[in-house]
What does this fold into?
Amino acid sequence: MHEVGIAQSILEAVGTEMKPHAGARPVKVTVRVGAMSGVDRDSLSFCFEAIVRGTVFEGMLLDIEDAPADELELCHLELEEP
Amino acid sequence: MSGTTTVNLERKVLSENDRLAAELRGEFTRHGIFCLNLIGSPGSGKTALLERTLASFPPDKRVAVLTGDIRTDADARRLARYGFPVRQITTAGACHLDAKMVVRALEGWDLASLDLLFIENVGNLVCPTSYDLGEAAKVVLLSVPEGEEKPLKYPGIFFKSKLMVLSKVDLLPYVPFRLDDAIANARSIQPGIEILQVSTTTGAGMDDWLRWLDKR
It folds into this structure.
């Protein structure tokens, strides 16, 4: 169950990207997960929901897209500007 | 001014791990170290393979081992008997090693004194798949009692490994393991994967494994 760590890495990346956007609310982050990446989509979604709870990221959606092979990529982040 | 903004991220989820792994790989290359990341289920025989490997080396062999487990230094103690440098990494719960753990474990070691570094990962066919440790190659162990369908059930690690070591082949007469199917399953995930059959109990296939190491 390393999906907690993967979810944590996603949140760290989102946190970094949020810095120049003061007051913005993160709405959705999109990642691409390949079948050979060793990451299970269901457990990633589960872990993501569990670790955003009670944080500034609560309510942010995780969108998981298909990717070839072992890709495990961050695609984009949707923000709601104040 | 309110509205929705989309920010492109365009990088790997584990980019921080990959950055550290790239640094490690640079260090290994600079010092001419061949580094292998050994991955397999708990009990697949990773430590046994290393024991038999270390036992076959002359005392002046420039080899070292990092061995990862969630708890205990049992493996490091087993491996230290052969007289080569060994360090235990205890992950305190984590199901895999990451590059930062390797960087920390190598602190204070003189890399210039090494030609070969084994990193024995935490026993697990899934999680170690995602984490680059700076190795030249991943080696996956599949032991005969685990069953021939493992490459299909856990494709990621078989996809990423250069070599599959079929371990405990001395048990073939006693367990319902279809060797040809195991090989076909692994090759269906990755046609180019190299495969060796080894028993650390009888020593069968050890020469092939040592030759494979030597070729690097």
Remarks:
- Residues 52 and 67 of chain A are 24 Å apart (CA to CA).
- The interface with chain B takes residues 1-2, 5-6, 9-10, 12-13, 17, 21, 24, 27, 29, 31, 35-40, 69-70, 72-82 of chain A (CB under 8 Å).
